[in-house]
Amino acid sequence: MKHSCDVCFTTTGYDIDEVVLDYWIAGYDAHSTSAQLLKSVIFTEFSDIDYGCVLAEVEDAFRLFQLTSKYMESPPRLCEQRLLPLTTPMCEMLISKYYEIDDAVLREIVGKKPSTKMKKEASEICLRANINYYSCRRQLENFRRIFKAVENCKGNLLLEIRRKFLLPSRLCKRYALAIFMCTYRFEFPRKRLGYLSFDDLCVCCIKMINCWSNRAFEEMDTESDIWLSREFLASIKDAKILCERSTIDDLKMKLNRRLISVLSPAAFIHFKCNNRSFCKAVINTGMELSQGKELREFFVDIFENIITPCHEGRWTKDDLGQFCSELRKEVADILLKLKQDSFLVDIWNRYLDVFTVCVTQML
Asked: Against a cut of 0.85, is the pTM above it?
Protein backbone atom coordinates (compact mmCIF):
# COMPACT_ATOMS: atom_id res chain seq x y z
CA MET A 1 0.00 0.00 0.00
CA LYS A 2 1.34 3.39 -0.95
CA HIS A 3 1.04 6.32 1.39
CA SER A 4 1.19 9.92 0.31
CA CYS A 5 1.48 13.17 2.19
CA ASP A 6 1.38 16.80 1.29
CA VAL A 7 4.38 18.95 2.18
CA CYS A 8 4.02 22.69 2.34
CA PHE A 9 7.12 24.90 2.22
CA THR A 10 6.65 28.34 3.74
CA THR A 11 8.75 31.02 2.12
CA THR A 12 7.08 34.20 3.28
CA GLY A 13 8.80 34.27 6.68
CA TYR A 14 7.47 34.69 10.19
CA ASP A 15 6.10 37.81 11.77
CA ILE A 16 7.79 38.05 15.16
CA ASP A 17 6.07 40.04 17.90
CA GLU A 18 8.88 41.74 19.83
CA VAL A 19 6.68 42.33 22.87
CA VAL A 20 5.98 38.60 23.21
CA LEU A 21 9.65 37.87 22.53
CA ASP A 22 10.64 40.19 25.38
CA TYR A 23 8.44 38.22 27.78
CA TRP A 24 10.00 34.94 26.64
CA ILE A 25 13.51 36.38 27.02
CA ALA A 26 12.60 37.62 30.51
CA GLY A 27 11.70 34.06 31.54
CA TYR A 28 7.89 34.28 31.58
CA ASP A 29 5.81 31.23 30.64
CA ALA A 30 2.96 31.40 28.12
CA HIS A 31 0.19 31.76 30.74
CA SER A 32 1.95 34.59 32.59
CA THR A 33 2.71 36.35 29.31
CA SER A 34 -0.91 36.11 28.16
CA ALA A 35 -2.15 37.50 31.47
CA GLN A 36 0.31 40.40 31.27
CA LEU A 37 -0.66 41.16 27.67
CA LEU A 38 -4.37 41.33 28.56
CA LYS A 39 -3.53 43.93 31.22
CA SER A 40 -1.43 46.00 28.82
CA VAL A 41 -2.50 49.16 27.01
CA ILE A 42 -2.74 47.21 23.74
CA PHE A 43 -5.87 45.36 24.89
CA THR A 44 -7.50 47.83 27.29
CA GLU A 45 -9.89 49.08 24.59
CA PHE A 46 -11.11 45.56 23.82
CA SER A 47 -13.23 44.11 26.61
CA ASP A 48 -14.25 41.00 24.66
CA ILE A 49 -10.74 39.66 23.96
CA ASP A 50 -10.69 35.92 24.66
CA TYR A 51 -7.89 34.72 26.94
CA GLY A 52 -7.75 31.40 25.11
CA CYS A 53 -7.07 33.09 21.77
CA VAL A 54 -4.27 35.20 23.25
CA LEU A 55 -2.78 32.13 24.94
CA ALA A 56 -2.83 30.16 21.67
CA GLU A 57 -1.00 32.95 19.84
CA VAL A 58 1.57 33.26 22.63
CA GLU A 59 2.16 29.50 22.71
CA ASP A 60 2.74 29.49 18.93
CA ALA A 61 5.24 32.31 19.30
CA PHE A 62 7.00 30.57 22.20
CA ARG A 63 7.33 27.38 20.13
CA LEU A 64 9.07 29.38 17.42
CA PHE A 65 11.40 31.01 19.93
CA GLN A 66 12.21 27.61 21.41
CA LEU A 67 13.09 26.31 17.94
CA THR A 68 15.48 29.22 17.38
CA SER A 69 17.15 28.75 20.78
CA LYS A 70 18.92 25.54 19.70
CA TYR A 71 20.90 27.60 17.19
CA MET A 72 21.95 30.22 19.74
CA GLU A 73 25.04 28.40 20.97
CA SER A 74 26.53 29.35 17.60
CA PRO A 75 24.42 32.25 16.25
CA PRO A 76 25.80 32.12 12.67
CA ARG A 77 23.95 28.79 12.36
CA LEU A 78 20.64 30.60 12.82
CA CYS A 79 21.36 32.73 9.77
CA GLU A 80 22.54 29.73 7.75
CA GLN A 81 19.68 27.30 8.57
CA ARG A 82 16.77 26.83 6.14
CA LEU A 83 14.24 25.12 8.40
CA LEU A 84 12.80 28.39 9.69
CA PRO A 85 12.08 31.10 7.09
CA LEU A 86 13.64 34.01 8.99
CA THR A 87 14.89 37.15 7.31
CA THR A 88 18.35 38.52 8.13
CA PRO A 89 16.93 41.42 10.21
CA MET A 90 14.82 38.91 12.16
CA CYS A 91 17.88 36.76 12.88
CA GLU A 92 19.86 39.78 14.01
CA MET A 93 17.04 40.89 16.29
CA LEU A 94 16.59 37.41 17.80
CA ILE A 95 20.32 37.04 18.46
CA SER A 96 20.60 40.50 19.98
CA LYS A 97 17.61 39.92 22.29
CA TYR A 98 18.78 36.44 23.29
CA TYR A 99 22.26 37.68 24.22
CA GLU A 100 21.07 40.81 26.02
CA ILE A 101 22.51 40.89 29.53
CA ASP A 102 21.39 42.97 32.50
CA ASP A 103 23.72 45.40 34.28
CA ALA A 104 22.83 43.79 37.60
CA VAL A 105 23.93 40.36 36.34
CA LEU A 106 27.18 41.71 34.93
CA ARG A 107 27.89 43.48 38.21
CA GLU A 108 27.54 40.16 40.03
CA ILE A 109 29.94 38.21 37.80
CA VAL A 110 32.72 40.65 36.85
CA GLY A 111 36.07 39.96 38.44
CA LYS A 112 35.51 36.20 38.62
CA LYS A 113 36.51 33.72 35.94
CA PRO A 114 33.32 32.01 34.67
CA SER A 115 32.96 28.34 35.61
CA THR A 116 30.32 25.63 35.85
CA LYS A 117 29.60 26.91 39.37
CA MET A 118 27.80 29.85 37.78
CA LYS A 119 24.73 27.67 37.15
CA LYS A 120 24.61 26.76 40.83
CA GLU A 121 24.92 30.43 41.77
CA ALA A 122 22.05 31.47 39.49
CA SER A 123 19.44 31.17 42.25
CA GLU A 124 21.40 33.56 44.49
CA ILE A 125 22.33 35.97 41.70
CA CYS A 126 18.74 36.25 40.43
CA LEU A 127 17.58 37.27 43.92
CA ARG A 128 20.30 39.92 44.31
CA ALA A 129 19.78 41.17 40.74
CA ASN A 130 15.97 41.01 41.10
CA ILE A 131 15.36 39.15 37.83
CA ASN A 132 13.63 35.91 36.79
CA TYR A 133 15.63 32.74 37.54
CA TYR A 134 15.40 31.35 33.99
CA SER A 135 16.41 34.67 32.47
CA CYS A 136 19.34 34.87 34.89
CA ARG A 137 20.47 31.35 34.03
CA ARG A 138 20.31 32.08 30.29
CA GLN A 139 22.41 35.22 30.76
CA LEU A 140 25.01 33.39 32.82
CA GLU A 141 25.25 30.59 30.27
CA ASN A 142 25.59 33.12 27.44
CA PHE A 143 28.37 34.95 29.23
CA ARG A 144 30.24 31.74 30.01
CA ARG A 145 29.86 30.62 26.38
CA ILE A 146 31.27 33.88 24.99
CA PHE A 147 34.09 33.97 27.55
CA LYS A 148 35.12 30.42 26.69
CA ALA A 149 35.01 31.15 22.95
CA VAL A 150 37.31 34.19 23.13
CA GLU A 151 39.44 33.69 26.27
CA ASN A 152 42.54 32.85 24.20
CA CYS A 153 41.95 35.63 21.69
CA LYS A 154 45.22 37.37 20.76
CA GLY A 155 43.71 40.00 18.46
CA ASN A 156 40.79 42.41 18.74
CA LEU A 157 38.39 41.02 21.34
CA LEU A 158 35.44 43.07 20.08
CA LEU A 159 35.89 41.88 16.49
CA GLU A 160 36.18 38.28 17.67
CA ILE A 161 32.92 38.49 19.64
CA ARG A 162 31.16 40.06 16.67
CA ARG A 163 32.51 37.42 14.26
CA LYS A 164 31.56 34.42 16.40
CA PHE A 165 28.25 35.65 17.82
CA LEU A 166 27.00 38.32 15.37
CA LEU A 167 26.23 40.74 18.19
CA PRO A 168 25.71 44.49 17.64
CA SER A 169 28.55 46.83 18.64
CA ARG A 170 26.82 47.87 21.87
CA LEU A 171 26.65 44.29 23.16
CA CYS A 172 30.15 43.44 21.90
CA LYS A 173 31.52 46.29 24.02
CA ARG A 174 29.58 45.23 27.13
CA TYR A 175 30.77 41.64 26.88
CA ALA A 176 34.34 42.70 26.03
CA LEU A 177 34.56 44.96 29.09
CA ALA A 178 33.13 42.27 31.38
CA ILE A 179 35.59 39.72 29.95
CA PHE A 180 38.42 42.23 30.46
CA MET A 181 37.49 42.57 34.15
CA CYS A 182 37.21 38.81 34.57
CA THR A 183 40.50 38.10 32.80
CA TYR A 184 42.44 40.40 35.14
CA ARG A 185 40.30 39.19 38.06
CA PHE A 186 39.86 42.66 39.50
CA GLU A 187 38.44 42.45 42.99
CA PHE A 188 35.12 44.21 43.56
CA PRO A 189 34.05 42.99 47.02
CA ARG A 190 30.35 43.56 47.59
CA LYS A 191 30.86 44.83 51.13
CA ARG A 192 33.18 47.68 50.12
CA LEU A 193 32.54 48.30 46.43
CA GLY A 194 28.95 47.13 46.11
CA TYR A 195 27.83 50.74 45.61
CA LEU A 196 29.59 50.86 42.22
CA SER A 197 27.43 49.96 39.22
CA PHE A 198 28.63 48.07 36.16
CA ASP A 199 28.63 51.38 34.26
CA ASP A 200 30.91 52.89 36.93
CA LEU A 201 33.37 50.03 36.45
CA CYS A 202 33.15 50.40 32.65
CA VAL A 203 34.14 54.08 32.85
CA CYS A 204 37.25 53.11 34.82
CA CYS A 205 38.19 50.15 32.62
CA ILE A 206 37.70 51.99 29.32
CA LYS A 207 40.10 54.67 30.55
CA MET A 208 42.48 51.93 31.70
CA ILE A 209 42.43 50.29 28.27
CA ASN A 210 42.84 53.62 26.46
CA CYS A 211 45.86 54.63 28.57
CA TRP A 212 47.53 51.37 29.57
CA SER A 213 47.13 49.19 26.48
CA ASN A 214 48.41 49.65 22.95
CA ARG A 215 45.18 51.02 21.49
CA ALA A 216 41.94 52.86 22.19
CA PHE A 217 38.94 50.76 23.23
CA GLU A 218 36.65 52.29 20.60
CA GLU A 219 38.85 51.16 17.68
CA MET A 220 36.51 48.31 16.77
CA ASP A 221 37.84 47.84 13.24
CA THR A 222 41.54 47.44 14.02
CA GLU A 223 43.38 44.22 14.78
CA SER A 224 44.96 45.53 17.99
CA ASP A 225 44.04 43.93 21.30
CA ILE A 226 42.74 45.56 24.49
CA TRP A 227 45.04 43.80 26.94
CA LEU A 228 47.19 45.91 29.23
CA SER A 229 50.82 46.50 28.28
CA ARG A 230 53.15 44.71 30.69
CA GLU A 231 55.98 46.93 29.52
CA PHE A 232 54.01 50.02 30.47
CA LEU A 233 53.11 48.72 33.94
CA ALA A 234 56.74 47.77 34.56
CA SER A 235 57.94 51.21 33.40
CA ILE A 236 56.00 52.96 36.17
CA LYS A 237 58.52 51.54 38.67
CA ASP A 238 61.37 53.40 36.95
CA ALA A 239 60.34 56.49 38.92
CA LYS A 240 61.60 55.04 42.22
CA ILE A 241 62.87 58.47 43.15
CA LEU A 242 59.26 59.39 43.95
CA CYS A 243 59.33 56.91 46.84
CA GLU A 244 62.23 58.62 48.59
CA ARG A 245 61.35 60.40 51.81
CA SER A 246 62.88 63.71 50.73
CA THR A 247 60.91 63.63 47.46
CA ILE A 248 57.62 62.96 49.25
CA ASP A 249 58.36 65.77 51.74
CA ASP A 250 59.03 68.14 48.85
CA LEU A 251 55.89 66.97 47.04
CA LYS A 252 53.57 67.43 50.01
CA MET A 253 54.89 70.96 50.72
CA LYS A 254 54.38 72.03 47.12
CA LEU A 255 50.89 70.54 47.12
CA ASN A 256 50.05 72.42 50.32
CA ARG A 257 50.85 75.68 48.53
CA ARG A 258 48.96 74.73 45.38
CA LEU A 259 45.84 73.27 46.99
CA ILE A 260 45.10 75.96 49.58
CA SER A 261 43.38 78.08 46.95
CA VAL A 262 41.56 75.34 45.02
CA LEU A 263 40.22 72.89 47.64
CA SER A 264 37.20 73.47 49.83
CA PRO A 265 38.17 74.52 53.40
CA ALA A 266 37.17 71.14 54.88
CA ALA A 267 39.07 69.16 52.25
CA PHE A 268 42.21 71.30 52.56
CA ILE A 269 42.34 70.99 56.35
CA HIS A 270 41.95 67.23 56.00
CA PHE A 271 44.64 67.05 53.31
CA LYS A 272 47.10 69.14 55.31
CA CYS A 273 46.76 66.71 58.22
CA ASN A 274 47.14 63.65 55.97
CA ASN A 275 49.22 64.88 53.02
CA ARG A 276 51.97 62.28 53.41
CA SER A 277 49.52 59.35 53.40
CA PHE A 278 47.71 60.74 50.33
CA CYS A 279 50.96 61.17 48.37
CA LYS A 280 52.29 57.75 49.37
CA ALA A 281 49.00 56.07 48.48
CA VAL A 282 49.05 57.43 44.92
CA ILE A 283 52.74 56.64 44.38
CA ASN A 284 52.73 53.17 45.96
CA THR A 285 49.61 52.10 44.06
CA GLY A 286 51.34 52.90 40.76
CA MET A 287 54.65 51.30 41.73
CA GLU A 288 53.02 47.94 42.47
CA LEU A 289 50.81 47.58 39.37
CA SER A 290 53.26 45.27 37.58
CA GLN A 291 52.52 42.61 40.21
CA GLY A 292 49.47 40.49 39.45
CA LYS A 293 48.08 40.57 42.97
CA GLU A 294 48.41 44.35 43.28
CA LEU A 295 46.78 44.89 39.88
CA ARG A 296 43.84 42.73 40.97
CA GLU A 297 43.50 44.84 44.13
CA PHE A 298 43.79 48.19 42.30
CA PHE A 299 40.18 49.22 43.00
CA VAL A 300 40.26 47.95 46.59
CA ASP A 301 43.48 49.90 47.25
CA ILE A 302 41.93 53.08 45.85
CA PHE A 303 38.86 52.61 48.03
CA GLU A 304 40.82 51.99 51.22
CA ASN A 305 43.61 54.55 50.74
CA ILE A 306 41.83 57.38 48.91
CA ILE A 307 38.03 57.08 48.89
CA THR A 308 37.56 56.22 52.57
CA PRO A 309 39.80 59.09 53.80
CA CYS A 310 38.04 61.48 51.39
CA HIS A 311 34.66 60.52 52.82
CA GLU A 312 36.01 61.13 56.31
CA GLY A 313 37.34 64.54 55.26
CA ARG A 314 34.15 65.51 53.39
CA TRP A 315 35.88 65.87 50.03
CA THR A 316 33.82 66.54 46.91
CA LYS A 317 34.48 65.15 43.42
CA ASP A 318 35.75 68.59 42.45
CA ASP A 319 38.18 68.57 45.41
CA LEU A 320 39.52 65.19 44.39
CA GLY A 321 39.83 66.23 40.75
CA GLN A 322 41.78 69.35 41.75
CA PHE A 323 44.10 67.28 43.95
CA CYS A 324 44.85 64.87 41.09
CA SER A 325 45.41 67.73 38.64
CA GLU A 326 47.90 69.53 40.90
CA LEU A 327 49.60 66.25 41.83
CA ARG A 328 50.14 65.47 38.16
CA LYS A 329 51.83 68.83 37.57
CA GLU A 330 54.12 68.44 40.56
CA VAL A 331 55.09 64.85 39.71
CA ALA A 332 55.96 65.93 36.16
CA ASP A 333 58.11 68.80 37.50
CA ILE A 334 59.95 66.49 39.92
CA LEU A 335 60.67 63.86 37.27
CA LEU A 336 61.93 66.44 34.78
CA LYS A 337 64.06 68.13 37.41
CA LEU A 338 65.58 65.04 39.02
CA LYS A 339 65.49 62.48 36.21
CA GLN A 340 65.37 64.71 33.10
CA ASP A 341 63.29 62.00 31.47
CA SER A 342 60.28 63.15 29.42
CA PHE A 343 59.41 59.51 28.58
CA LEU A 344 58.99 58.76 32.29
CA VAL A 345 56.82 61.86 32.64
CA ASP A 346 54.57 60.49 29.88
CA ILE A 347 54.39 57.11 31.66
CA TRP A 348 53.29 58.73 34.90
CA ASN A 349 50.82 61.01 33.12
CA ARG A 350 49.19 57.90 31.64
CA TYR A 351 49.05 56.26 35.06
CA LEU A 352 47.61 59.37 36.73
CA ASP A 353 45.03 59.87 33.96
CA VAL A 354 43.52 56.49 34.88
CA PHE A 355 43.92 57.09 38.60
CA THR A 356 42.07 60.42 38.33
CA VAL A 357 39.12 58.95 36.43
CA CYS A 358 38.86 56.01 38.83
CA VAL A 359 38.95 57.97 42.08
CA THR A 360 36.47 60.60 40.89
CA GLN A 361 34.12 57.90 39.58
CA MET A 362 34.36 55.94 42.83
CA LEU A 363 33.90 58.86 45.25
From this structure: yes
